[in-house]
Amino acid sequence: MPAHTSATTPGYRRLFDLPGTRAFTAGNLLARLPMGMFSVSAVVMIAGSRGSYALAGAVTATGLAATALAGPWVARLVDRHGQARIAVPATLASVLGSLALLLCVRYGAPDWTLFAAYALTATTPNIGGLSRARWAHLLREDPAALHTANSFEQAADELCFMLGPVLASFLTGAFFPEAGTLVGAVLLLAGMLLFAGQRSTEPPVQRRARGKGPLRAAGFPALLAGFVATGAVFGSMEVVTIAYADAHGHRSAAGVVLALQAAGSCAAGLLYGTLRPAGSPERRHPWCLAAMTALMTLPLLAARGTGSLIAPAAALLVAGMATAPTMVTAMTLVQRRTPEGCLNEGMSLAVTGLLTGIACGSAIGGWAAEHTSPGSGFAVPVAAAGTALAIGTAAVLRPSGQRGS
């Protein structure tokens, strides 16, 4: 979908001129950075102590599953009682889980305690969702400014998930295996306290209509299915990229290659926020999905056409540029379709859909990498993106039965 700049398009400076936005954004970013640290830190810490990557992977997978279950429940409590009253104690419980995991690993506790401790970290609030909810409240009368804010939040997601693993790897390697988990827990708690302390920008609690949850809202289930398919793109791309790099003797470079995809998405997200896209989000969403599907074919073509890692790396940088606009538009639709009084729950369900898709995509991508040629595994993200496109297009066509513009 084409987009054009406008003299009336609000910029990032205008967002942060609003009272309190700089402070809550600083706290949000500080608390969000550990989200890219904990998984890597846990794997390094557990595998180094117990000598088993299988155990480390099983523990982190348990945490992912627990997060998918607990996330919407925590978000519903936030909607009912307010961000500060729920997010702070939920974060404290998560931090205690991280510290318990650290101590269990450090002092050789039985394996089952690792699963229990890491599952406790699932109470971590959806920090990006809390921030988006604040922007939605502050900019409820200014859709163009909200588009810019959502673009910033998506770029922040990409930046934190790009820098988090790098910081975790540095800490665990330069100091001691538990350093990544320890620093991540401190950053999470400090950031959440700073964020929650900004009460002037906290959305007021709104009464929730009886029986009007997000899953019963028109169009929300299809949107959630699209998030699952989009998550499968991310999960499969990570696994097949690592497998491709390993097959060509460059496994250590896989992290850098994946960081390029995140960097492309981050840059595109910031640029997208300076534009004023034409048309409604409902009409733009399939166009964004179509662009993502088309660009995801580039790594496949590069991997099949060359035997090096350079071409797929460059292709991933370009392919990542479709991710942020797609996610920004999808999150805007979540905000529009979620009934009043349950916005945090709606965004948490979207994240749960992404996590579910990432898990499924990782499994399918791993199977493809093992049973097909190294380059052919890149067909899985293309298929997942195509599935998301089909779901998004069907959702647009269903109300009127006619193709939208």
TrEMBL record:
Pfam families in alphabetical order: MFS_1
Annotated transmembrane regions: 29-47, 53-74, 86-109, 179-197, 218-244, 256-275, 287-303, 309-334, 346-369, 375-397
One GO MF term: transmembrane transporter activity
Database matches in InterPro entries: MFS, MFS_trans_sf
Keywords: Membrane, Transmembrane, Transmembrane helix
Coiled-coil annotated residue ranges, if any: none
Protein name: Transporter
